[in-house]
Amino acid sequence: MATDRTLFVPVLRTGQLVHFDWACAALDTAGIPFQQREETSGGLRVAMPAAPTPGPGVWWTVLVPESWVAQARDVVLELPFDATTTPDVWSFQPKPVGRLLWQGAIWIALALVAASYATFFFGARH
Questions:
Q1: pTM for the full model?
Q2: What is the mean pLDDT of residues 46-52?
Q3: Which three-class secondary structure state does DSSP give residue 8?
Q4: For residue 87, which of 22, 19, 24 has the smallest C-alpha distance?
Q5: Do residues 120 and 60 make contact, with C-beta atoms less than 8 angstroms apart?
Q6: What are phi and psi of 35, to 5 degrees?
Q7: How far from 45 is each of 11, 18, 27, 124, CA to CA, in Å?
Q8: Bridge partners of 37?
């Protein structure tokens, strides 16, 4: 017994939940079937979490069956924001201070990891 597999294609990938929810509502109203998932810049793809959290490199994706792509793109392109499937790491659009805080936290974490490796490999050995 053969099983048909439906290929789902992304029509929107965004770091902003309001844009994601807006697109999902528009597709639902238009009667277009879709799936939702969360993706990261590291390649992790999971089902939509109960409490999605925005951050650098976190996106939410709307996927539709391949046969519905043209209709879905027409619906999404009518919405008042840029609909893309290739957002950048900062697409969740933090305020400038928030972005600096994220970058600072990342640099501190990297410095701590480097210091722990240096201590482990070059520290005093008894």
A1: 0.68
A2: 82
A3: strand
A4: 19
A5: no
A6: -120, 155
A7: 16, 20, 21, 43
A8: 47, 61
